[in-house]
Structures are given as structure tokens and as C-alpha cells.
Request: fold
Amino acid sequence: MCKRKLLFIVFAMLVSGVSAQLFNGGISLGFSGSQVDGDGWSGYNKPNLLIGIFVENTEIMPKTNFLVETSYLGKGSRFFDQHTNYSYQISLHYVQMRIRFQYTFYKSYFAAAGISPGILVKASVAENSIKAPDELLNFRLFDVPLSAGLGMRINKNWSGLLMFSYSPTSIKPYVWFRNNELVFSLNRYISM
Reply:
């Protein structure tokens, strides 16, 4: 009986020490330029907002960590022709679970790669400022883009990250539309 109590106390101390030392948390704030491949318009012409919260494992192996973030990210595309005043916009709003590995390769610089499963919470399409009816939108509910990028740990409280994100599958049935975006974010670490 005494051995069990001692084992429990040692295990509890190890678990509490590990959880206090290996995890950081914080908030992310950023923006993206996005386009929808396949819609006929090119360029990262639609600005979007990124807001999220994250938990980071500080070191799985030397120089390697793992981050999970829940975030809101706007996506879509926008086109405007000045000569004809023609405009077209796809506006997509996702809540994502961004999962990524980061590897520090030089001092405070790191490479990041991951996957960002997301659920579409709102969608709209407008042509010449006239919105399409919801029943014609028909966007897929789920999107699973892949991402890769580079970042820098600025100090113990801040890091910056530039990511390229791309959906390998179509975001709309029967039409080969894919989300494509460049995302910049600042992460603010908060002591846990």
C-alpha cells in the first residue's frame, strides 16, 4: 500500500512538472491575401483576417516543437476591373484547427509545416455587388489545406510567421476550386 502511494506521488510530481515546463500558450493575430484557384481570376487580391489561440509543445525533440491552434480565417477571391467596373467576390469564413510542426534551423529562425482542417461557417458570392442566393453557393462544408512557411522567434513573448497554404481538394463539388493563400501572423505567448 505504501509503495502505491509513493508511486502515485512520484507520478503526480512528474506529470505536474512536465506540464508546467513543456507547454506554452498564446494568441495569434494576422492577415492573409487569398485567391481561389479555378475561378478564372488570379492574384492574392482578397485581404482577410486571422484570429486564434494556440498551445505549443516547447520541445518534442531538440529544435522541434508542435503547435495546435484554433483560429478564424477569412478566405476567398476578389476581382475588380477599373475599365468596365465589373466586380466579383467569393467570401469564405472558416474556423480551423491548425496543426503544425516547427523546426528551428538557425538561432531563432524556424521552418513550419502542417495541416489545417477547417469548417466553413459562412460563404457568399457577389457579382457587381449583387449577392448570389444561398442555395446556389454549394461550397463544401470541410476544407483541409496543407501549409508550409518560415518564422522567427522575436523574443520570449513574440514570434512571427509567414505561411503558404493550399487546399489539395476542391472547395466546391463538380468545380475544381481550391483555396490558395499567403498568411502572416504574429503570435503573442502568454505564461501558463
